[in-house]
Predict the 3D structure of the following.
Amino acid sequence: MATSAPRVVLQLNDQEQGLSVTVHDAPYGAGQTAHVVLQRLEDVLRMASQPTFHQDVGRGLFRALFPGPLEEVYRAALAEATVQGVPLELELRFDRAAVRMARYPWELLHDGTRFPLQTGAVTLRRALLCPEPPPAGALRPPCDMLYVAAHPADQPVLVPQYQALAEALTMPLQFGQLDLAYLLPPTWDAFMDWLLAGGPHLLHFEGHAALTRTGRLIFVGERDASDPVDAELIAAALRGGAVRLVALGGAARYAAPDDLPAGAAPWLVLAGVPDVIALQGVLPPDEALTFWQTFYLALLDGQPIAGALEQGRRALRRTVHWHVPAHFARASEPRLGPRGPLSVRLDTAAPRTGAMGYPLRAALWLAQTDSPPPSIEALRRLIGLRSGGWGDDEAAPTPVPCQARARGLLSAGAVEVRLTAEGCTVHTPPVRATLSPGSDPLPVWFALTPHQVGAVMLRFTVWQAGQPLVEATHPLEVVRGERVGAEVTLLSHHWPGARPEPVTIRSRPVAPPAEPVAPPEPAEPETPPVTSAGPGDISPVTETESFDAALDEVLAWLKTASPPAPSPETELPPSAPPSAVAPPLPAAERLPPAPRRMAGLRPRDALILLLVLLLTWAAIAALALFLTG
């Protein structure tokens, strides 16, 4: 019976006075804790760029991980691994607050006699505590790979390596182990359009990075300029697909530490990517090609990601850059924190109008009730709005509050989000995600193609424990033609027990009523009611939820709001979505339903048209009386 290789798992926590190291798992000494002070990251990275200082940096990092009695934990585990003839698996765990420490070059560890990673005595990976568990099973061929080579004109020149790597991978390509695709043009919009056909198993990004609050990868934008995209949005775009590994390579010959791809790696993992292989330094083009060729050949031969990385590192062992490749992954034991009901809000966004026969994207955010609404960048990236909707510095539209159908509160744990829309083909399968207390807003997106003109109601359903727990509806107007407006409808859905604080539509405060009242039934229904399909659905959907009824609710609410004199600060801008569902008024304050608008016309335009028809009829009648008299 095969025995597992010895492993040492260290939990690293950032403290005010330095670093806390706890032995989470080890053959000997589990549970021990030590406190040390790390050298400034900038100083360490500066030293690591000079080969003559590697040994000093490695010794300092080793003393930080294994101070005092913790060194005995390492020595005992290494001795056991040596007896078994296998490398010691070293795993460093970081939570979100300690991401800064994940950027230290831990591969340079020097135990006083050697670099254990260079000799192959130790393997190392950085594990980020992520609420979603890692995928089960190893990555097996055949695999689909998308190669993104982003070389903006305003960035330092990179050496393109796609052609050389494709030639080096000729055998797995010919035998069907690998399907290699090249993204052209290397823009964000082209990347999202490519994902409509299904995400790849492997994503290889060759380009530059920028370190902000989270890391950013730089795509090519308009006029061949840089277009930096937040790592969390990239991970959100990949969520729900088949991606198992993201490889980040490419850097200019003289790259600053903040320009290296490894800066985005931990944020990709925290946002849901299972594994990331990133370069935390500059690899010369020939050495980079050697590493990636060896790594991918081992991976396609059935090696696990850690084993393939070790093969690639072995190919660099006789160079001074053997420590540059780094492995970031999800923690094998994710921590969800306390379970129980969460105070969650659903934000949905989609283009206000869509063209019939053309695919579009809609997005949903599961957020804490006190979380800010989605940013303008998130709306642009996930929904696909082209430039011209808002300026870069312009704030996103304020979400319109509305009511969701719910059987109860969502709890910490796994959820599944589904989208259905009558008369539309939904291209994205149900998206699985994990909710955790205090987590950042969790975005998911769907691609769909409408096939009929008119009002369409998008229905987002959140399933948990096999039950459809929450349903949120979102209106969409489908028109003919290719070009549609860049406006977006942003709704904030809540329900009893998960209701946010009083919110604002632009600058007008709105306090939701304590007891919601159902919208009035229309006098003459225009369409038959649509019921939810399948057993266990929340409840039938009546025609009062139609696009026109939603418009009526907003108009009725605006009539009773008693707004002040119009001014740029207080009046409702034309860009505010009139199709959103406003909170219903108490029965005593409710006005009769507003007249239904004519198809394809706004209410004001319909009123003007009716007035013109009346005047025309009156003129004809007067002329007839004059002629007969």
Residues 597-629 form one domain. The two ends are 113 Å apart (CA to CA). The chain has four domains: 7-128, 143-305+323-330, 342-388+395-511+544-551+579-585, 597-629.
